[in-house]
Design goal:
Two copies of one chain form a homodimer. Chain A is globular, with a radius of gyration of 22 Å. The first copy, chain A, is an alpha+beta fold. In chain A, helix 16 packs across helix 17. In chain A, strand 8 and strand 9 form a beta hairpin. The interface between A and B is large, with 98 and 98 residues.
Chain lengths: 467, 467
């Protein structure tokens, strides 16, 4: 990352910032270092200052000054991004959203809620519990809703409820000039001009800074059941999923873990799952429809070679299973103490998924790097968690080689280099391979139009030519 | 529309066009006039030439020439847009897509199909029938898929299956410079950079020209049933819908017709529906879940004052009901022979829908213009069809006044001026009211970035300042 040029903050700028925002501004090393890392494997890269915003107006103040002095400005949620999204490689000011943590409005009749960008997904679900509604998007971390919107996050519920793309209705955004716009109304659908909401969802802080998010909520299902089933091979498991989706069964979650991941969660979560690839299912609906869906899937699993199909209708059992799945990343890391877990994130058309995973496993067999595989298999999205010592350059190079191979094959299969993690800095070169230079030129044109001085989280998503 | 300047086509340009595309180019008056109208109430405004494209390469040829000579270029599907979207007010070349009508690929395992932009929705459904899949988006007309993508269309199925925003996976687009880009892979989800797909969906030919569309398909439900229920008032009907949605019942369609619309379809389709506001329901799922959903909705309808709830489980009865609904626009026009039907298109948060319709009815009562109301009530979207003589300037002014009032109230209720019809020229001023100048400036920046010479369907969606 030493290609980035880093200029010190102008004194005039810092003075103006402190004059406007007082003790909301910090230049303490510990604070800066905390905002100089995420879950990626990059070294700490602290910003020059951190501002703890309390309102959209505070963000306007910061951005206007950054615009005037051409200082980079980077929004920061909980720091759970994993591709270096929030690292200020060119220095500048990080805006921390942890104090913008108010649920602004809940509209149960409309199935919507509006939150400040720093509200986390678990906090939102806690605060709307009494309404009988829930917010389904669940990346591994308890991320901020603003950060999830900015990275177009998803998780285990996406097969039924969609991703942030589908669940963000409107955003309040501070533009590079420091103007405040709202991208859309709360109408459930609209054809009123360019889709500003979709432009900012997934833009990773490079086009504008999200300060409020209106999300869709969903009705808590009356009936929920979960099941787990082992399969002889990953292919059999994937075939079961394809058949399930082709039957039109509105499955709420379907996750795969390979044998290595099963071993890891068995150890980490004290479970005794059969050491074989497994699918975890969850069904939502009325009690009758849940039973019907589950019976149909049980039948399909049997036809696909499923070895055992066991139920978890009790909340406690269900919660245990899903906690194990959610902890798969940490469980994997125990396989190699002191290691770093690096996760790939390709997503392919589901017809190519078994093949994609199959070749990946063959390639991984040639390497000595320990790994596990988990995946949101209903969407064609899977993660290989590669366990490396990030200070061992050979292991890092080997990890990058494996990751690149997985990405190249996914692109050949008409898939994407990232289903849900986003681009950050780590996947910028993959974007060229996936979209081609002409499409990237359109992205560059958009970036230049929305951020002419390149102050908004610069150096992320697309390389700007000639700059 | 006389504010637009219209320059004749340069001879050199026309010669070059004919040299490249021969008899695919027409300057015959009848052909030009056919492409100079849509379903709006504007006078015919013919383009200077029409090109019948047969491939993406043909479109590239046209756009490159238009770019070189700074000639406006307008894509044309079946001409069913209703806000003047395709009218070449500044002259130029219209590209007709009717010969780009091939289904390029059907991928049943992935639930996707790729079509040339001129394929219509009914044609697509015909061609995929054998797969057990269907494409749900159903605007009134048998529109082209390219046109539907360009206007972010929806219809009666959107409450369950979403709009074109949700159902377009990827696009092939010719940019203003004549480059061909593909906006995304066929992966079901992606976080790989800016959402180019969403940028072009709803851009009405002003940012690029869509030549191919990859859409999501859905599994034909094993069980379908439909029902109809009358209510004493529109408010009662809307309350029934709110309760249905809050129960999380995955209703496939729920449409409202007011008493006037019921009268109109009774006459037009020889039905004998009770002369009272009605809801039409459709349920999709397994036979058991369809029955369960319908039973629950029947109960809710009863509690909301529903007067009678009658089933249409037979395909024929169902088809008769839905045909009547789809013909409501034409049926309405019979109420005033020789008239023009002008449709409003607001969409509001559903909690405000009854109030929105209620005030609208009060306002309409003060006018002498005949009207009917139909609506995709599950989405908060409704249409007032105003029957006017478009050559009577008083009636036109009265219609515009009513429409503007409906839009202003919808915006006050945090709704949108257009749920599904798009902006064209007719709603450009509403866009300012809805989004504000700062958000519109972002739209203008996008337009300038993607179409610096303003050749792509110029004069639509946003007024560019200082031009």
């Amino acid at each position: 990352m030493n290609t980035h040029t880093r200029k010190p903050l102008p004194d005039l700028f810092l003075n103006a910032l402190k004059l406007s925002l007082g003790d909301q501004v910090s230049t303490a090393l510990a604070v800066r270092e905390h905002h100089g890392r995420d879950e990626s494997m990059y070294d700490i890269c602290p910003p020059d200052a951190v501002v703890f915003a309390r309102s959209t107006e505070d963000v306007v103040t910061v951005v206007k000054l950054c615009n005037e002095y051409e200082v980079p400005v980077i929004p920061f949620g909980v720091g759970s991004s994993i591709e270096g999204h929030v690292l200020p490689f060119s220095g500048g000011v990080t805006i921390d959203f942890s104090e913008m943590n108010q649920v602004v409005a809940i509209n149960p009749e409309d199935l919507t809620a509006t939150v400040q960008a720093g509200v986390t997904r678990k906090q939102l679900n806690q605060e709307i519990r009494h309404t009988g509604l829930f917010f389904p998007i669940d990346p591994g971390a308890d991320a901020s809703i603003g950060g999830m919107a900015a990275t177009r996050a998803s998780g285990t519920n996406a097969v039924r409820y969609g991703t942030m793309r589908d669940n963000v209705l409107s955003l309040t955004v501070v533009t590079a000039e420091g103007k405040v716009i709202r991208t859309a109304s709360r109408a459930k659908k609209s054809a009123a001009g360019y889709d500003l909401t979709a432009i900012f969802v997934g833009s990773e802080g490079t086009l504008g800074i999200i300060t409020e998010v209106t999300v869709k909520l969903h009705v808590q299902p009356e009936g929920i059941s979960a099941a787990i089933c082992s399969f002889p091979t990953v292919q059999d498991a994937v075939q079961c999923v394809i058949s399930t989706i082709q039957m039109g069964i509105p499955i709420a979650r379907v996750e795969i873990m390979d044998t290595a991941a099963v071993n890891a969660v068995n150890q980490y979560s004290q479970l005794s799952l059969k050491e074989s690839p497994v699918l975890l299912f969850e069904f939502h609906g009325t009690p009758a429809s849940v039973e019907e869906q589950a019976t149909m899937v049980q039948e399909i699993a049997k036809e696909s070679g499923g070895l055992d199909f066991s139920w978890a209708t009790q909340t406690e059992d269900r919660s245990k299973l899903w906690t194990a799945r959610h902890n798969a990343f940490f469980a994997s890391m125990q396989l190699k103490p002191g290691c770093r877990g690096v996760s790939t994130d390709v997503c392919v058309p589901i017809s190519r998924l078994a093949e994609s995973i199959d070749i990946t496993i063959q390639e991984l067999a040639k390497s000595t790097i320990p790994y596990t595989i988990v995946g949101h298999v209903g969407d064609g999205n899977y993660h290989v968690i590669l366990l490396i010592d990030r200070h061992n350059s050979e292991e890092v190079a080997e990890m990058e080689r494996i990751n690149h191979g997985i990405v190249q094959r996914a692109i050949e299969m008409d898939g994407t280099c990232t289903g849900e993690h986003g681009v950050g800095v780590h996947k910028m070169s993959f974007l060229v391979e996936e979209h081609g230079e002409d499409a990237l030129d359109m992205m560059r044109a958009l970036k230049r139009a929305f951020d002419p001085k390149n102050i908004l989280n610069p150096g992320k998503i697309v390389h700007l030519k000639n700059t």
